[in-house]
Each structure stands twice: as C-alpha cells, then as structure tokens.
Amino acid sequence: MLYRWLLALKKPSNRLWVEPALGAVLATLFAFAARLLNIWLPPDTLPEIELGTLESLLEVISSSMLAVSTFSLSIMVSAFASAASSATPRATELVMGDDTTRTAIASFISAFIYAIIAKTALGMEFYGQNGRFVLFVSTALVLAYLIVTLIRWVHTLSQLGRMGNTLDKIHTAASAAVRAYRARPNMGAAWQGKPHADAAVLYARGNGYLAHIDMAGLQKRAEEGEGYIHILVRPGELNYARHPAGHRQRRRHKHGHTARLLYARRGP
Fold this sequence. Notes:
The chain has 268 residues and is an alpha+beta fold.
C-alpha cells in the first residue's frame, strides 16, 4: 500500500500540489526555528535588529509572493491548456512535470506562508533579540533565493507550453526510455522463452497506458508462490480490459531451483 502511495505521489499531476505542501510545512518549521536560539544562546548574544526592519522585509515578501503565486498559477494553467490542445496526452503529462515550474510555484507559496507566520510571531513578541537576528538572516536568504527563482521562472515562462519546448521534453523522455531499455532490455528479469500451455493467464483490470511495473513485488510473489510470472507488457504500452498481461505458472521442479521472475514479449 505504501508503495502505491509513493508511486501515486510521483505522478506529475499530483506532484504539483505535493511540493507546495511540503514547502509550506518546511516554511512553518523554518519560521519557528529561530525561537530555539533563545534557549541555546545566552540573551543578547547576537546583534539587535529593529522590529520595523523585519516587518518591512516580511511585508514585501508576503504581498509580492501572493501576487506572483496567483499570476504564476494562471500562466501555468494556460500553458497546460495550450499543451493539451496542441499535443498528445502524454506530452501534457511531461509539461505538467516540469521541474522548474513545480519548484517556482512551491517556492512562492512557501515564501508567502513563511512571511505570514514570521510576521504574526513578531507581533506576538515570539522572538527575542537572538531570534530576531536569526530571522533577519533567514529572511535575507529567502529574498536571495526568491530573486534567483524569479529569474529562472521568467525564462521558463517564455517557453512553457510552446510546441518547441514540448517536443524537447518528449525527446528527453524518449531518450531516457531508450537508454533504460538498452541497459536492461528485460527489466532485470530472466529470459526463459514462452510460458507453458497450462499457465494461468493474468488480465488487465482496465483500459489505459501502463505506467509502471513493480518488478520487486512480482519477484516476491513468484518466490512466495514457488512459481514463475511471465510478463507480456512493458511500461508505456496501451492495455485493454480483459486483455492478457501475463502468465503465472507453478514451478515444476521440487528441488534445486529458486523462483524466478520471467519476461516474455508478446508478438514479434
């Protein structure tokens, strides 16, 4: 079950919200971490930072990041719609999985949450002198990181959703798949030819493209059942409901062999 959850979270459509959510949690922890220095360091060890200076910096971050996040989300939705209308569904998934886009959105939302929490904590006198100095340094680092992210984001916006950029992503994904196939043509399974005639047929439960095969899980099932599993499909292939996806057969030898995961291609 945990493996399926992790696999689902890796989907590009889900990673769009996973990274901002994780960034929000880290931003919250980061804002409260400055409080710990009041416990670890003697009072008034670090330089004094005016409260107004911190509030001004946090106000700039909170107001600007809210506007930038809203604008970026609207641009991102427009780019996804453009890719969906001019390319295939698989290409749309690649556009949605753009690393720079996810990082930028997560950074903007996280910075906004960080500024709101830190500003609220300042108003409640949550930080001492040491904490305010650490908060000032961390806020300066956040600003520097946001500047770099904004520059990269502007470059990404000029290309996101365009046909040339989409084709580049398709080429990159296809090249990675070809290299993986060349390195492991049988995906780590043993080749033993065709399954026996008495092997049980395994059918697909629904229609769609096969996204992933849990080779380690199938190997474990084969060992537990003391048999063999023949895989007839490969990730990326279109499968139909009630269409044979593999065969399962019992091991004929009682001694001297361990269960192995087999791989057999269907067709030429």
